[in-house]
What we know:
alpha/beta
Amino acid sequence: xxxxxxxxxxxxxxxxxxxxxxxxxxxxxxxxxxxxxxxxxxxxxxxxxxxxxxxxxxxxxxxxxxxxxxxxxxxxxxxxxxxxxxxxxxxxxxxxxxxxxxxxxxxxxxxxxxxxxxxxxxxxxxxxxxxxxxxxxxxxxxxxxxxxxxxxxxxxxxxxxxxxxxxxxxxxxxxxxxxxxxxxxxxxxxxxxxxxxxxxxxxxxxxxxxxxxxxxxxxxxxxxxxxxxxxxxxxxxxxxxxxxxxxxxxxxxxxxxxxxxxxxxxxxxxxxxxxxxxxxxxxxxxxxxxxxxxxxxxxxxxxxxxxxxxxxxxxxxxxxxxxxxxxxxxxxxxxxxxxxxxxxxxxxxxxxxxxxxxxxxxxxxxxxxxxxxxxxxxxxxxxxxxxxxxxxxxxxxxxxxxxxxxxxxxxxxxxxxxxxxxxxxxxxxxxxxxxxxxxxxxxxxxxxxxxxxxxxxxxxxxxxxxxxxxxxxxxxx
Length: 477
């Protein structure tokens, strides 16, 4: 999933994988970072031998890149759409469906013999504005059930499991004040699960959330919900733990937490794994990250009802992390240049594979640098009652072409983005990230690109006061 969250984690694990500790050296400029390279056996082969799924989040627009496609084809046995099956992508206008991206993901899974994981049917984010504007509870309920019926129904029999409801709880265990919670009350989650079961009786139905990897107020609230659903016969089959983690912060009680859910009679899944660090990466950070990846896979292997682990992307090049957490990144197991990182070999070892020492290339900077010479952002809002739209123009003032752009900025008055156009616009807390579409990623010198979004506010709607393009501060004008 793209965006959008903070994951403080609880507990720390700093013990390094033995082999990694022995081989990881301090990085200096230009040095080669020793790492472990796996044998010819792929992660998919190793996971299948353990009876587990290993998945990745797919952006179908990247399949034209040979390195991306080769890893996707060979290393995974499960695929989930990063964004293509979300509500804004599949039903941008009421009753008007766009299946292009979702069908690409589904057809890729089928043609490659991979399981297809559905993400997500009901979520407060990446939600079209028309849904949020349904003030009648009856209309919103009908829209929700119709959406579930259409999307889950289209892929009936093809999806192994669905994230039926995503991110429904706050960190303190209370219900998130989404449009669904506000207008439909606590019962909307049950209604969504019953609608999903009717639409696809064979798919397993999951509730999915972040910051639930350890035992805390949020995970306990979900535990109580599952306990209640099981007692009353409400269809629920699995719980997803997103596991957007920070190096050194894999919860010490993660296995205990997953096991208590499994003991309720549901499957558990690690659904969106990445482990970020302060950048730039160095040998010590990469070794610590590898140890954490190894630990997460060991947790899943130790819990019989853990269906598997899905990493949220393939390469650091396209990770959502740097755009949401400035100064952090390098969160996946392949680097910007599709080179395996120590984490890859730690996962290999955790799954029972054999690794042998070999050098890997030096960590390099991202392939999409900030524009040389600067950038300028124009922000034009149109505000009414508790809603607003904004048109944003990003100008390249530099002398080099920008190939691929991510613009970040912050809201200070609780504004919430509900939908966007000409960019993928996501939000985590007050931080907003806008990323180019496949067709407007180039900004030539003295050129510009524009996008827009719709949002809500609670009475005040001040404009952002700072912007960064690919991490580089922009002027406002």
